[in-house]
Design a protein that fits this description.
Elements: E1 2-6, H1 9-14, E2 18-21, E3 28-31, H2 34-41, E4 43-47, E5 53-58, E6 61-62, H3 65-72, E7 75-79, E8 82-86, H4 95-109
Antiparallel strand pairs: 1-8, 2-3, 3-7, 4-5, 5-6, 7-8
Helix pairs in contact: 2-4
């Protein structure tokens, strides 16, 4: 499932995104890290040294490790001033909710 929203590459980069340029085409994308995704939707978690989720909560409610991993696995990038969000099936957050949360978070944290 995927969705898009308006968001500038400058806002995404200022909020912690990393810029990537395609080597052949020169197209530029700004990828948002999972820390931005987590903060935008209110996901708190800790990881084992192995990288696996130890515990997680979503807006204060306990969340299974598998569901937290699914949310953190969302692909979020900005290309041509458009935020693209791809999220595997999630019963906790829809792609539209995630996109809205990211836009709001980036607007408040990119200044």
């Amino acid at each position: 499932m995927s969705t898009t929203r308006a968001l500038t590459a400058q806002q995404a980069a200022a909020a912690g995104g990393r810029t990537w340029t395609h080597p052949q085409t020169g197209a530029t994308r700004v990828y948002l890290p999972d820390t931005v995704i987590a903060e935008a939707i209110g996901l708190e978690y800790e990881r084992y040294r192995s990288g696996n989720i130890w515990w997680a909560t979503l807006r204060g409610a306990k969340l299974s490790n598998a569901r937290a991993t699914n949310l953190l696995g969302a692909s979020c990038w900005v290309e041509d001033d458009t935020l693209h969000v791809q999220l595997r099936d999630s019963r906790d957050v829809t792609p539209d909710q995630l996109a809205d949360a990211i836009v709001g978070w980036c607007e408040t944290h990119s200044n």
